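The records we work with from here on pair a chain with its fold. These numbers are not coordinates but entries in a learned vocabulary of local backbone shapes. To see the layout at work, look at the sequence and tokens printed below:
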Amino acid sequence: MKHLYLASLLLTAFSFAQSSFNSDTYVVSRNDIATNTFETDSTAAALIIYEDGNSYIDKDTYTLKTEIKRKIKILKRHGFDRATTSIYLYSDSKRKEKVSRIFATTYNIENGAITKTELKSDDIFEEKYNDKYTIIKFTLPNIQEGSVLTYSYLLESPFIYKFHPWEFQDEIPTLYSAYNTSIPGNYEYSIKLVGTQKLDKNESKLVKKCLNAFNGSSADCANTTYVMTNIPAFVEEDFMTTKNNYLSRLEYELKVFRGFDGSVDNITKSWKDADKELKSDESLGRQIGKGTSLEEVIADVLSDKANGLAVAKDIYNYVQQHYVWNGEYKIFSDVSVKNLIKTKSGKISEINLLLHNLLEEHGIEVKPVLMSTRDNGLPTQLFPVISEFNYLIVQAKIGTESYLLDATDPYLSFGELPFRCLNQYGRLLDFKNGSEWIPIEANKTSGSQYQVDLKISDQLVKGNVKATYYGYDALNKKKDYFENESSYIDHIANAQSEITITDHEVQVTKKNAEEFAETYHIELNDKNTTNDMVYINPFIYKSFEENPFKLQQRTYPIDFGYKKSYLYSVQIDFGDTYELVEVPKEVNAKIPNDGGDIILYTTVNEQKLILTFKLNFTESLYSADYYGTFKAYVDKVLDVQRNSLVVLKRK
């Protein structure tokens, strides 16, 4: 068999063609207005030509000030939303952020002359967002396709521990983005560059005595300039976690503050310190190990008290079936296992802490695991930022095996996590030996298997289908079926117009079964046959309906969340009435580095044709370097599914 290899397309940095836009300064040039195309990204509705930020501690007020300037080109009508800017201002009970010096101008070319339309102060509005934030909003006037917009403003914040972050990447392309910072030596920050884009400039210099205190003391400042150029637009696509994991930006976390009086305040704690705080936390540490008073109830559900795994599964099933998640994720406030036992409804943390405590009461080694869901972002591993965690699960060790458990979904099988939890890693809390990072992964490959048996008789093509789903494919099927059985069966029957489905049966009775299996009878419509010929596309069921990978370039990973496989087998009994004229060509295409494969082969056994199609993704997470390969890979799958043909001729 010949092997077809889909070569890995290792993508280089996004290459921006030389343009006539003036990306060197905030000043608007005639070319900025007159140039109305951006060849590098023809889909872009707008373009950031130039942006600059400057953050520093004011010498007189000791507040954090940030000056922002931005120049934007409107390329298409659906880029008009870029004319509206919203500035979020934070406040607490005593202090608040302020914005001032808002200046904005729209530039156009009308009758060959450059026109300027300035924003009026009456067109700047303030609205309350919530208890913590107020929004200052304005929309630039006289917007047209081809307009250039400029705006600038000054932010003032008393919250110096929250040094102003900077986003280099946006949902539209950016030609030039610079951020200048001046940080006094008595403020020590952890600075994190997030995302895949690289800095073109990162230069620092020391400025002596940049900040003076009332007692004659002074501080030196580190003045740093960060620059990125030619930054591609960030476009969301399938198979990704939150975009906040990948947008290129700078983030700051205050580690240490050194006062002019000699005091030192360690703001960022070590994990050893964080563990101590979590252990004494009323909503977390003090809920762990609390008595449940459910000994008699649990005793009645245990099927084999001598078998640790059986005990764990019975307790897991009990919690799943008797306690309902109320939709809240809270793990650090208003958590009460006692209240959950009383009301039978509670938060994620309450249900899983009850599971933890019940397992511990019955001799199972368990520990809680803090984590962040896929839509909440990846927590930093450099130092503890407790606010970045929004979820809690349980690790149970039974013999030599470890299981990650979440009892909040009645459709999950033992050891299976909700898809929202498949976010790479979490923090295992061990208050005796110290916490540690552990991988958060699906416990097995997920997929679907179809076994189709067709027979040709009297110019009719009909037969039986057995479909088996496992892992997350089974989870979705179980939810669809058990939540509305009749609707599910109707959907199966109506899903394909070219097939008539009857005698549908489901071979599963438990919501948390590991697999979902169903069988049914099918009949293909008669347009597949003539008096002498039968034409059959053997792919009645398809792994992909379209290619989900549509971008020219993707700068962030392909994250399925779990390993995937698909097996499709069809047997066509053509009897002694027909002879084979054409069968699909065999395929063996591979993703580099054993990342997956597509296999199609056929065999003929007497009067039966057997076609087998296999599709495998052997990893749950692929780097962006594989994106071109994945596009070609799925295109190959679609080509096989759409264009494979079995042709039979009457003898």
Remarks:
- Confidence is low (pLDDT under 50) at residues 1-18.
- Residues 30-263 form a domain with the Immunoglobulin-like fold (CATH 2.60.40.3140).
